[in-house]
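notes to self, project folder thing:

trying the whole complex as one job this time. last attempt i did each chain seperately and stitching them together was a nightmare. two parts in total, labels are on each line so i dont mix them up again. if this works i'll redo the older ones the same way
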Amino acid sequence: MIDITAFNDALGIMFTSVGSWGWIVPGLIVGLVFSAIPGISITMAMAIVLPMSLYMDFFSAIVFLTSVYTGAGFGGSVPAILMNIPGSPSSFATTFDGYAMSQKGEHNEALGYALFASTLCGIAGYLLLLLVIEPLADIVLRIGPVEMFAVAIWGMMLLGSLGSTYISRGLLAAAFGILLGTVGMNTAGFTRGTLGLPVLLDGIAPIPAMIGLLAASQLLSLATRDYIIEAEGSREVSLRKILKGCWGTMKYPGVLLRGSIIGIIIGAVPGVGSSIGNLIAYAETKRTAKDSATFGKGNPKGVIAAESAVASGEGGSMATMLALGIPGGGATAILIAAFMMHNIVPGPSFIETQKPMVYAIILNNIVQAIVLLAVGIGFIYVASNIMKVRTRYVLPAILVIATLGTYAVTGEAAGPITLFVFALLGYALNRYEYPVSAVVVGILLGRMLETEFLRSYQLSGGNPMYILERPAAMAIFAVMFASLAMTAWGKRKQNRAEAAEALAMERLRDEAAANAAHTTPSKG
Amino acid sequence: MRIGRQTYVIDYGHLALITLIAGAVFWYLFDARSVSLSVNNLLLVQPVAIFALAMYLFILPQCFRKVDAVAAPRAGGEKDPFAIEVSTGHSDIIRMVALGVSLGLMVFLLDVIGFDIAIFLFAAAAMAICGERRPVHLLVFSLAVTLVTIYGFRALISYPMPTTLL
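result (full assembly):
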């Protein structure tokens, strides 16, 4: 299961680049702090610090960014438990039982459950990745340009169809993103869509565009929300009770395992991500629990299930990203951008040629999960103060950092201008329920899609029947169309059910109003 | 707008957005075709552009809603926890537009008036837009943001950052 030679080399990388370990704690703190501030998501936190990683060596940059990812996974649960405000969408399910425990005065225990579940399941997700990377490498090495094209299209379709309430809007966003990604000179030497601007010859700068779409656009919509959190969060923090909660997590191995499995699977599918994983894990745990009636009233299993899915989802999404070079969502799209900034393309060839580096990244993430335990406990002590920072202070500072970050990447005004244009576009897309992550991934993958498609075309000599010689590609396309049809059918069914439910509710309201009119004695 | 007996409400913002996207896609396709009609040029761009335009036509009717449908709350009525909430109130929209304009001004004036002054003015404007009215807070926090970011990024990046005062 594990390539021992590559594993030993990975240990060598780990110990020879001890300097990069120094980025774990700052990365975790950045992730914890940003995601604890209501309105700032994991993706936003990573997008804002992405330009800083340009000035680090490759391994340090990945260590820093994945630390932010790990920290942000747990950070969002602190306001969720203490104040019933999910710091990020992935902590939504944590509020159900976490806040209920908090109301009962068990907030320390709840934080302990969340922290230990995050740590254990983060490790579990990466341990599984460590085991499957070798067999995955064998599979992905057989992938040719046709299969790669099919996989990338499938990923885009999933991002488009699952990332929005409306499939059509998701697909338009994905197609628009792909087209934006092909602007400039393609591999065959044709130059399109540059408006005569030399800066666009290499295409739209992906990092400023990504920061604009994922971070700045959402910051613009935060202008109307000046959070003022009351003193409720300043509850007493007790290390003893947190540790009691940590220890208590071990009593629920089944919940941890189920949450981890759901998190890994959901995390590996492009377009779904941890924001859905935590809800599914919570719902499944509730459905199968004997004490399901106590869920929502402060059952620790609810907190553990939600947090375990969030933490293990990171390993799942990293598997897709490392093996195929396809980002599962915003956070892994940023990691891919970090790879690109260091002229490294993740995917089959990366796994083949850089296996020790892949193992080193995985091992480092396991270390991060362990360090999170200590940093997380320290963070809980200061968290209530961070959550009270008002938007009016956070917003200008972050927007300035994001703008200067894009300047740091491009070295000219084109970076901030790209950020601005894409911030406006992202804001409009968010407003009308278009999945922004589909546009981001389209920009990142557009060029690769075109190159793989061109290679497939050249290999086949322009004969479309060539696909019949590639059963794997046919299977991927078949699964893609089936999943798209199932999503469309599912959403149609859901819409009908919701409409019927609304109609029934309206009838009930009408009947209640009629009954009230009958029973109320008429005046005069 | 009335079509036959039915009255429709037009979502002009959504209509403008998708028409803008469709216009950009159409222009890009036209530009790519004007460069060359070679398969190596149009292999991906042409089918994806046509697909995007087809999606535009499919989405277009969603911008026109029957008055009854608008009046009734959305089926299910439950709040989607993952949706990014974008306020629709008049004053909220003005705030967001003001913040967008401030960001645009800062971005385009960075090279003209210097990074330091542009950042200071933007930070103060953004704080004021978000509701800060106390002059000392506006001044001190904007100055702190300017100093920290200018000196911080100057230490980090190798490109020159034109400034006027710092």
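what i see at first glance: The two ends of chain A are 86 Å apart (CA to CA).
need to look closer tmrw
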